[in-house]
Amino acid sequence: MTAAVPGPCDGGIAAAAEARPSAPKRMTLIASILASSLAFIDGSVVNVALPAIGSDLGAEAAGLQWIVNAYLLPLSALLLLGGGAGDKFGRRRLFIGGIALFAVASSLCAAAATLPLLLAGRALQGVASAMLMPNSLALLGAAFAGAARGRAIGTWAAAGAIAGALGPLLGGWLVEAVGWRAIFLINLPLCAGAIWLGWRYVAESREETQVPLDWLGVLVATLALGALTWGLTVLSGGGSGIGGGWTATMLGLGAMLLFVLIERRRGDRAIMPLAMFGTASFAGLTILTFFLYAALGGLFVLLPYVLIELRGYSPVAAGAALLPLPAVIGLGSRMMGAVAARTGPRLPLTIGPLVVAAGFALATRIGEGTSYWADVLPAVLVIAIGMAGAVAPLTTAVMASVDGDHVGTANGFNSAVARTGGLIATALLGSVLAARGEALAHAFDAAALVAAGAAAVAGLAALILLRPAEMRTPQAEGSDS
Fold this sequence. Notes:
Elements: H1 10-15, H2 25-57, H3 61-89, H4 91-111, H5 115-143, H6 146-177, H7 182-185, H8 187-201, H9 215-237, H10 242-266, H11 280-309, H12 315-321, H13 324-343, H14 346-362, H15 364-368, H16 372-400, H17 407-427, H18 430-434, H19 438-465
């Protein structure tokens, strides 16, 4: 997901891992935070730099979309495989390898003289994030147990929110003071620190019972997402190539169907076991996640772009405009997690997305308005309040909607769905990114209304499909010794 907040169920991946003795726990936590911050920061700073990159490399609307989606596509498709490979080959090995690859990819992005080279670097960053993110969380789950594990996950989530909040601000400052290439060079010291901590302090862990990886399923899913994303990007931009766009979109949808058939045949050995969809609640949560994070992903791409291109904001000011969103989500998520524990997840997961929908309806004032305090801030705050009401309950609900054998897989899948939502949303933004002047304002208004509709669908999915009787009550864990 191209957003400055952690995915909805990233923390659940760590919670699902078995506790084992490890090297110093504090250093493992710091290494996990540093590595995850790479993905959180890089997923947000690029959005602030899109106008500068487009101007320097001569990127049209489709090129700007691919600067975002070249990262999201491999991350969405390979996230579950990255976790499975860590379980099989060693989580520490995949963790350190992913960080090293991220450093190489960031260097390629910073040195890119053409758009294709930049896109290649962004794709490598996505592959690296798919390696390091699930394994950084699984290493947390291996290092901590019981209440200490919960505190570690909470610290990781808070650090991710802070990194996401500071990312656009830092990115905007770097674009202004140094140039857009600096937003990729800032990753290198973080990579170096995380690799050193991982090599020096983090203990290796892996699953004792190893299942063959679902390589065919991953390949078909990647091809499906790639064809679908390319097709929708062409179609949303208009102009020539419409026939090819429709062909790619249809091929992508067909490959999605083939992926489902492959997963059905593989049963519990599948990367996406269809047994998880045995309840209406899990299906509803998947629909909710896709539409809610598609709306949010579109906002993170469009809002800085519109403020810079249409309203004359500096990159720093555009980054600061998004600051309330991760801040409010980070502050409100813990409280809403407690509320969901008392009331059940259905009510907050219905109300939260509907509040987000109201915030996107307010965002239609941004295109025409000129005041941050009267036009931008109210919409961002309402969206943030709604998201704060949904993030923590969503993680809890996903974990409770499947049997104990599928908790880790369900969390990873839900996180991948969130990022896929942002991927598809960005692929549909071509006509908005291609617009100029007041046409851009009108296109942004239309996109905000579509996002409001998507968030409303998310809330209705929770209301209609979530069934408390299907929810499993997670067993409490003991405290860490």
